[in-house]
Amino acid sequence: MDGGTELSLTIAHIVQRLKGSHLHSQIERQAKVSKGFQSLKSVGSIFRFVLYFLNPLTLVFAYSSQLPPSHPMAPPEHLKEPLAYMRKAQASWEKRVLKSLNSMSTELEVPLARMRSAAEQKELANKWNEMGTDDPDLSRFRPVYAPKDFLEVLISLRNPNHDSSEDVSARSHWGLIQVPVNVRDIPQLRQAYSELNLITGQLGIDDYFPFVSVLVEQDSAAAQQYSRQGCPTGLRADLWALILNSTNQPPDVMHYEQLTAGVIQHALLVDHLIYKDVKLTASNDDYYFVFEDFLYQVLLCFSRDTAVLDHFKYNSATPPKSYIHGKVGDEECAVVYPPNGVIPFHGFSMYVAPLCFLYNEPSKLYSVFREMYTRYFFRLHSISSSPSVIVHIVLPQIGAQPLRIAFKWMVRGFSGYLSTDQLLLLWDRILGYDSLEVVAVLAAAVFAFRAENLMEVTSLASAEAVLADLSTLKVMPLIQVFLFATSI
User: Fold this and answer.
1) How many domains does the chain have?
2) From CA 407, how far away is CA 415, in angstroms rounded?
3) pLDDT at residue number 157
4) In 119-261, where do the E strands start and end?
5) How many CA atoms lie less than 13 Å away from 350 in the CB half-sphere?
6) Boundaries of each Rab-GAP TBC domain copy (predicted)?
7) Which of 22, 23, 77, 479 is deepest in the core (most CB within 10 A)?
């Protein structure tokens, strides 16, 4: 395929993704005031005009980075996941999770969804901003799964076309995950993260002013590049929103209000799972317990947001479906459940909690979280051969028994383990490099830092004790020393 054809196919794919979005309307407005627009008739031609003559990086980087690395005409299942054994493993895992949810519904006699009574709706509407004061009985409910359950699934993965006996080595016996994938070694990581080298400053007071200019110009690509070296605390919220193309325009606020109304009108079984998770995690965290109300609001709305389903177009997973009561087995009566297609697991609320430090307006907080999830976080609990998914990022520098300890850190993106200021510095780099790989690099750096203590332990429990408290660690010095001051 020549360059021109490939570019045309990419543009067509992006145009389809952009239709109806806020960015799409921005492109149209910008094109209409530009010379030469009058001769352009179709959406595609308008977009091509903008792409070639305005600022393509600012306009499309947030979308093009999510495109599947395949020809748009390939079968849908291949766009989502090209390897059959990965698709089979993901499908099997989804069935297991959905079966657990349905079993809970049957055992507890709690319907998957129901209309709230008028009295219930009024009560919930009145306490919407203080749901943290509510203390429902959640003793009967349990998380559908925890990170350790997902790890066992990854450990069991095998490529049927690969004979592992051909490359038996100390490393292969040492590693937990036996899937042959290409990962970057230390020299390659050094090249990929060159901005993090020991002689390059990582966010000083003098770095503040370039960010202001980026915000004034609304340059998303520049914001992403600058965030590789960390965002100033006072500008981080605006910079992340710019990178994610997350706006808080009237349509966004209206969408959030509609989701709120949906929560008030209908009760879902997953609501109990959300309540339970917040109570077990964020409510017991010294940093996040004060945001309990925000977490309920955002996560309950998220569970109803059908716009989240769009990420399944490039996610190896398939949204779970259930049947309308009394219509089990009738595919015409199968509906996605929950409406957003995402069943929350133990620790899920910790994806939202750190963002509460940045955004105090629920609709804005929600918008940013949704973008973070559909771009990054879903990859932390999906089975796929994509380089940015958990199967790959756990392998580069860990790939060993320490993974049993580190996996829970990585599935949460270290949320709940690092102090909040350090966590936000880590997430700056996730956004800056548009990759979760830095999460695995940090996990390996933690083990390297605590190596002397770990060499003295004689059991897994002792090792976990050594690594129990990460709240005093400084993220960037650890990563820099691990990548650039460690002999290979």
Assistant:
1) 3
2) 12
3) 81
4) none
5) 28
6) 230-434
7) 479
